[in-house]
Specification:
It is found in: Cytoplasm; Nucleus. This protein has about 120 residues and is an alpha+beta fold. Helix content is about 30%, strand content about 25%.
Length: about 120
C-alpha cells in the first residue's frame, strides 16, 4: 500500500492482512529508536446509550463511550512512533491497522438486554 503524507512530515502506512507481516517487521526495527508510541482507535460508532442516573455529564459521556467500546469490535488501530524529543523517524512513522468489519455480525437485541440488565452508575 502506498503511504500517505500528512502535516509535520508524518507518513502513514495502511496495514491490511496482505502486508501485516512486512509492516510488523518495520515496526520492530523502528521501536528500537522511537519508543514513544501514540495510539488511536476507531470503532463503528454509537449503537447504544446508557440508561440510569449519572453524577455528571462527564460521567454520562464516559459510560456512553465505555458501553459502545465494550459491545463493538475495533475497526482501526493507529500507532505513531516518536523518540524522547518528539521527533518522528524518517519515512513511515504511523501505521493504521485496518480490521474486518461486518455490521451483521452483531446481535443488537442481546446488546440492549445486556445494557438494560447492567447496573450502571
Amino acid at each position: 500500500m502506498p503511504a500517505a503524507l500528512v502535516e509535520n512530515s508524518q507518513v502513514i502506512c495502511e496495514v491490511w492482512a496482505s502486508n501485516l507481516e512486512e509492516e510488523m517487521r518495520k515496526i520492530r526495527e523502528i521501536v528500537l529508536s522511537y519508543s514513544y508510541i501514540a495510539m488511536d482507535t476507531e470503532f463503528p460508532g454509537v449503537v447504544v446509550r446508557p440508561i440510569g442516573e449519572f453524577r455528571s455529564s462527564i460521567d454520562y459521556q464516559y459510560q456512553l463511550l465505555r458501553c459502545n467500546v465494550d459491545l463493538l469490535k475495533i475497526i482501526q488501530l493507529g500507532l505513531t512512533f516518536t523518540n524522547e524529543k518528539g521527533e518522528y523517524p524518517s519515512g513511515i512513522n504511523t501505521w493504521q491497522f485496518n480490521f474486518k468489519f461486518n455490521l451483521t455480525g452483531y446481535d443488537f437485541g442481546y446488546m440492549v438486554k445486556l445494557l438494560t440488565d447492567s447496573r450502571l452508575p
